[in-house]
């Protein structure tokens, strides 16, 4: 839920951000706009891969966190073992854990997909080997197909999140503890192109969500939905999950939105991290309501607030595309390659926006029906053709391009044939 990629850093050292008090709303908006949309030629690609973890002999058996920690060894995150060295995997990917002990590896961004493929393949092989020695395997879908959600990480943040989401319904706990996503991370782009890339990344969301949806079965039950994972995300707080505005200046729109989103959690040392009800970041800066009783917020506080947004595309200085279900461990490259190809050139970006316009807002339909919806299936097939034709621009080897094309187009056209 928090990015750790080595894309360009936020401005200033950690100590400076902690000490720098925000004077007013305008200062907060200016900071958000400057750090969330960093401009420059698209150069790097990263990926964050989340997986549920299961006992190989009985995937429905509750996961034992102690067994997981032993399996991860020096790579165990400190959220599970505070004294762990938390070493990255051999190719450099840090390991983190979601509240239900889903494992996440955040591959360091690379200059080409070929290099990214090599790094992720090496780290996944190492991770899977360590897990296998202790009878554990990675899940193959975007939601836990075998177990009901249960929080296994006992951190102040996750405890506060669980309390906050509980009155809304079961979606929050399911999102936190049962879901796994595949997040593609791409540079925002040059000043004259980044708004179009932002818009295209959103517009292709529903058809790509439908194309790669695989989370129908949850806790042993057929939900009837193509992506129960995405529906769980949407069933938390709309204010932090709804699609961002894609018209106008994305940086200005996002910065204004962040000021008006209520705090989800408020780090307070050993005290509970529950945020005052309804307190927005703008209220906190201006000292309104409960904000008058708190120390003035700093840039570090605003950085933390940014991590509590779970939108389909989240700007982190780069674009973090978050709407895809996790894929089986050996199949992650196809969606990453397709997304990268679709955003590789300005001309392709414009075609993406044109092709996707009729279904650009059909998120719920995509999650519920997937490619069973004829319009989404048609657009997904068009995107498959468009993206596969652009795979040569990603730096992948010809063999990988062929494998991705066969996988993506086979998936898209098989569904249309079945329909």
Commentary on this structure:
Helix 7 (194-203) packs parallel to helix 15. With 419 residues, the protein is of the alpha+beta class. Mean pLDDT is 93; it is low at 1-11. The longest helix has 21 residues, at 398-418. Strands 3-4-1-6-10-9 form a six-stranded antiparallel beta sheet, with helices on one face. The protein has a two-stranded antiparallel sheet with strand order 2-5. The protein has a two-stranded antiparallel ribbon with strand order 7-8. The chain has helices spanning 14-19, 25-36, 65-72, 113-132, 156-165, 171-178, 194-203, 205-212, 228-234, 238-241, 250-260, 281-286, 299-306, 333-342, 346-356, 363-369, 374-389, 398-418; strands at 45-51, 53-55, 95-97, 103-106, 136-138, 181-187, 217-218, 221-222, 313-315, 318-325. The chain has 18 helices and ten strands.
What's the layout of helices and strands?
Layout: H1 14-19, H2 25-36, E1 45-51, E2 53-55, H3 65-72, E3 95-97, E4 103-106, H4 113-132, E5 136-138, H5 156-165, H6 171-178, E6 181-187, H7 194-203, H8 205-212, E7 217-218, E8 221-222, H9 228-234, H10 238-241, H11 250-260, H12 281-286, H13 299-306, E9 313-315, E10 318-325, H14 333-342, H15 346-356, H16 363-369, H17 374-389, H18 398-418
Helix pairs in contact: 2-11, 5-6, 6-9, 7-15, 8-16, 8-17, 14-17, 14-18, 15-17, 17-18
């Amino acid at each position: 839920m928090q990015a750790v990629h080595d894309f360009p850093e936020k401005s200033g050292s950690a100590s400076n951000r902690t000490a720098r008090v925000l004077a007013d709303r305008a200062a907060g908006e200016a900071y958000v706009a400057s750090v969330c949309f960093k401009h420059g030629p698209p150069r790097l690609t990263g990926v964050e891969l989340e997986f549920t973890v299961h006992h190989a002999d009985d995937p429905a058996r509750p996961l034992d966190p102690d067994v997981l920690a032993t399996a991860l060894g020096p790579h165990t995150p400190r959220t599970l073992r505070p004294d762990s060295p938390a070493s990255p995997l051999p190719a450099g990917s840090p390991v983190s854990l979601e509240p239900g002990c889903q494992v996440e590896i955040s591959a360091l961004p690379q200059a080409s997909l070929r290099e990214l493929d090599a790094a992720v393949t090496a780290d996944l092989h190492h991770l899977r080997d360590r897990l296998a020695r202790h009878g554990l395997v990675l899940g193959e879908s975007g939601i836990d197909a075998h177990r009901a959600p249960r929080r296994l990480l006992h951190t102040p943040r996750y405890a506060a999140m669980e309390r906050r989401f509980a009155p809304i319904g079961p979606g929050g706990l399911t999102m936190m503890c049962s879901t796994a996503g595949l997040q593609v991370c791409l540079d925002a782009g040059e000043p004259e192109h980044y708004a179009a890339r932002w818009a295209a990344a959103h517009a292709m969301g529903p058809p790509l969500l439908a194309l790669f949806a695989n989370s129908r079965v949850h806790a042993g039950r057929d939900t009837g939905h193509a992506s129960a994972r995405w529906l769980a995300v949407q069933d938390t707080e709309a204010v932090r999950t709804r699609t961002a505005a894609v018209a106008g200046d994305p940086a200005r729109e996002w910065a204004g939105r962040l000021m008006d989103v209520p705090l989800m959690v408020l780090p307070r040392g050993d005290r509970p991290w529950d945020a005052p009800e309804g307190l927005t970041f703008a209220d906190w800066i201006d000292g309104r309501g409960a904000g008058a009783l708190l120390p003035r917020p700093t840039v570090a506080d605003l950085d933390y607030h940014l991590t509590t947004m779970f939108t389909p595309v989240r700007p982190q200085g780069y674009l973090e595309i978050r709407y895809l279900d996790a894929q089986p461990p050996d199949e992650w490259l196809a969606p990453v390659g397709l997304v990268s190809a679709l955003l590789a050139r300005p001309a392709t970006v414009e075609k993406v926006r044109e092709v996707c316009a009729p279904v650009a807002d059909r998120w719920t339909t995509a999650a519920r029906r997937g490619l069973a919806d004829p319009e989404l299936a048609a657009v997904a097939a068009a995107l498959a053709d468009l993206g596969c034709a652009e795979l040569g621009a990603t730096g992948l080897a010809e063999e990988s391009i062929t494998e991705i094309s066969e996988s993506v187009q086979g998936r898209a056209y098989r569904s249309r044939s079945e329909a």
